[in-house]
UniProtKB/TrEMBL annotation:
Gene3D superfamilies recorded: ABC transporter involved in vitamin B12 uptake, BtuC
Biological process according to GO: siderophore-iron import into cell
Cellular component GO terms held in the UniProt record: plasma membrane
UniProt keyword list: Cell membrane, Membrane, Transmembrane, Transmembrane helix, Transport
GO MF annotation terms: transmembrane transporter activity
UniProt name for this protein: Iron chelate uptake ABC transporter family permease subunit
Annotated transmembrane regions: 21-46, 80-98, 110-128, 134-156, 163-185, 205-227, 254-282, 320-341
Annotated source species: Paenibacillus lycopersici
SUPFAM superfamilies in alphabetical order: ABC transporter involved in vitamin B12 uptake, BtuC (SSF81345)
Membrane topology: Multi-pass membrane protein
Principal subcellular localization: membrane
Pfam families recorded: FecCD
């Protein structure tokens, strides 16, 4: 008996891996990737020294003057690529948590993992006195993973339920935010100001040395998330349905949470906590695809959103490079209010 497609069109890809790709999701992903590419080219053009499209491509191919090549390849390209890769990582992290909790509010910046990464980085900077990228990155990673482990243990009671995970996560996020404020207030003024500025979330001044290790980590974990796509889709149907499909639920959930936490912690270690990309990107992609949550459209939407926000931050105030976190926080706050309003109206 052929499978029932409920009016949706699919493309079957046969080979080492048998895939069935939803046509609408594929089209949305390709459109978003095309828009992101166009934005990336625009991002390489803008700045104190405006460049043409021809100059950008000449710099990328190595045919431009040394100054132009330095501006494009050494200064602007790391920022653009970091926005794309980190945006994709944050979006996939949000998709995983929203799928596991089956709640649009199940996002790492809502349920405490972003705050945990920030706390770890603050401890590395303010208490351990680390100023190196490796030290701060290690602090962010350890803080994110430790927070995830604590929240998971507190939420675990005869299995982990999505709503319980969100409630425990929100409580942990509130406590960690208070702890972060205490750490900043008890530190020296100049150190606290640097840490607070980092805590807004910014891609200003990012270079290859800081971005490459984190981008490689995010790329590897995006592949790992794709490999775990089948258990994730099965668990969206509920634990009983997942077990009926042969999924080891708790083992798969722990693996997915670990992937999602590091997908949040790695970008946070470089640019600081950037809010609401992980919250909004999966839901916007879901509305465009009109399907179940999928990793590829969410990743493409996250890359597009973070790059758009970073370009907007550069252009919003002439002569001033705003942190990208200011833009995402402003827009994300409005989006969060709309989500809460829709949930309240549907529950009424």
């Amino acid at each position: 008996m052929p499978p029932i497609h409920y009016g949706r069109r699919y493309i079957r890809i046969r080979g080492p891996f048998h895939l069935r790709v939803d046509v609408r999701s594929l089209a949305v992903t390709l459109i978003l990737l095309g828009a992101t590419l166009a934005l990336a080219i625009f991002g390489l053009m803008i700045g104190t020294m405006r460049l043409s499209v021809h100059e950008v491509f000449a710099a990328l191919s190595g045919d431009a003057a040394k100054l132009t090549r330095t501006i494009v390849v050494d200064w602007r390209l790391p920022r653009v690529l970091a926005a794309i890769v980190f945006g994709a990582g944050l979006a996939v992290s949000g998709t995983i948590f929203q799928s596991l909790t089956r709640n649009p509010l199940g996002s790492p910046d809502i349920i405490g993992f972003t705050s945990g990464s920030y706390t770890g980085a603050l401890i590395a900077m303010l208490i351990a006195g680390s100023t190196s990228f490796i030290g701060i990155a290690a602090g962010a990673m350890i803080g994110g993973l430790a927070t995830a482990m604590l929240i998971y243990l507190l939420a675990f009671r005869k299995g982990t339920q999505g709503f319980r995970l969100i409630i425990v996560g929100v409580a942990a996020s509130t406590i960690l935010s208070s702890l972060n404020a205490v750490l900043l207030l008890r530190s020296k003024a100049e150190v606290a100001m640097t840490a607070a500025a980092w805590g807004v979330g910014s891609l200003n001044g990012i270079g290859w040395a800081q971005s490459v290790p984190a981008m490689l980590a995010v790329a590897a974990l995006l592949f790992a998330a794709a490999v775990m796509g089948r258990p994730l889709r099965a668990m969206e149907l509920g634990e009983d349905a997942a077990k009926a499909h042969g999924i080891r639920v708790e083992r798969s959930r722990i693996a997915l949470i670990a992937i999602a936490v590091v997908l949040t912690a790695a970008p946070t270690a470089v640019m600081g906590p950037v809010s609401f990309v992980a919250l909004a990107a999966p839901q916007v992609a879901l509305k465009l695809t009109k399907s179940t949550q999928s990793l590829a459209p969410s990743a493409a939407m996250g890359a597009f959103l973070l790059l758009s926000a970073d370009i907007a931050a550069q252009r919003m105030v002439p002569g001033t490079l705003l942190p990208v976190g200011v833009v995402t926080l402003s827009l994300g706050g409005l989006y969060l209010v709309s989500v809460l309003f829709r949930q309240a109206r549907s529950a009424a």
